[in-house]
Amino acid sequence: MALPYTKPPLSLNDRGASRGASFAKAAATRTLREQVVALAEAAGLPRNLDHVTVQLHYRPRDNRRRDTDNLVATLKPIADALTPGKQARTVTRAGKTRRLPAQAGYGMVADDTPHYMSKPEPIIHPAIKGEPGLLWVTVTWQTVAEAVAEVAARQQLTA
Q: Which has the closest alpha carbon to 71: 85, 60, 56, 54?
């Protein structure tokens, strides 16, 4: 799925500690989740799978040095968007009640824990001179039956 960005919208290097920076990060996270849900729906991706692998790819506009760790901040809301999401709810902590907004979700897998989702390290591809940056995600999956058949086929080859 091609993402509508020329560079990652979130980075672990974004350390804004101000209240405004926190709101901006939350807004960027919410927007990214909603976009991924819309892209998954448009692509007709399946729902309620046993396990998926989600890999983020980035082709920057130039070949400056970059580390893949910073892309994890963008990968996290993408992975979250492929889960069922959450309803709006009210929570009380330390005597204070606040309303938490709903979080968009597609429902491809039940959760983004390792049991349901693998998230390999993001890949940074070489830049192409004169081309803008590009960000995309690949999502692959196998049903339990396919995985069992694959293991059985491998065992027959080694026997």
A: 56
pLDDT tens-digit map of 52-66? 999 999 999 999 999
Alpha-carbon span 111 to 79, nearest angstrom: 9
Q: Give the residue from 121, 109, 135 showing the smallest Cα distance to 45.
A: 109
**d(Cα 43, Cα 37) in Å, to the nearest integer?**
10
Q: How many degrees, rounded to 5, is the angle at CA 75 between CA 140 and CA 133?
A: 95
Please give the model's pTM, rounded to 2 decimal places.
0.84
CA distance 66 to 48: 35
pLDDT in tens, 13-36: 877 677 788 888 889 999 999 999
DSSP string computed for 57-106: EEE-SS-----GGGGHHHHHHHHHHTS--B--EEEEETTEEEEEPPB---
Model confidence over 74-133: pLDDT tens digits? Answer: 999 999 999 998 888 888 988 889 888 888 899 999 999 999 999 999 999 999 999 999
Distances in Å between the alpha carbon of 86 and those of 73, 77, 83, 90, 105? 20, 13, 9, 12, 7
